[in-house]
Write a structure and sequence with these properties.
It holds the Pfam family Lar_restr_allev. With about 70 residues, the protein is α+β, with helices and mostly antiparallel strands. Helices cover about 25% and strands about 20% of the residues. The protein has a three-stranded antiparallel beta sheet. The longest helix is centred in the C-terminal third of the chain and has 14 residues. The N and C termini lie far apart (about 30 Å). The protein binds zinc ion.
């Protein structure tokens, strides 16, 4: 882990940085999600793409830590 992640804003579980590729284009993308399977933020995490993998990951981590694009409050 290159950067510390804040805990999930919904359930308080640890968060995790994930990296993958869009199958159709092989473009890398990164996202941060909640590690708790039942949490809304486990499956519903914004993707960050369009740059090299390290940049995408950095943006995903920064966005998560700033709670951007995350439905933290209902
Ligand atoms: Zn959660």
């Amino acid at each position: 882990m290159d950067k510390a992640l804040k805990e999930c804003p919904l359930c308080g579980s640890p968060a995790e940085l994930k990296k993958s590729y869009y199958l159709e284009s092989e473009l890398p993308y990164s996202y941060v999600h909640c590690t708790h399977e039942g949490c809304a933020l486990h499956h519903n995490a914004p993707h960050f793409s369009g740059d090299i993998e390290a940049k995408n990951s950095q943006k995903a981590v920064e966005s998560w830590n700033k709670r951007e694009n995350i439905p933290a409050h209902s």
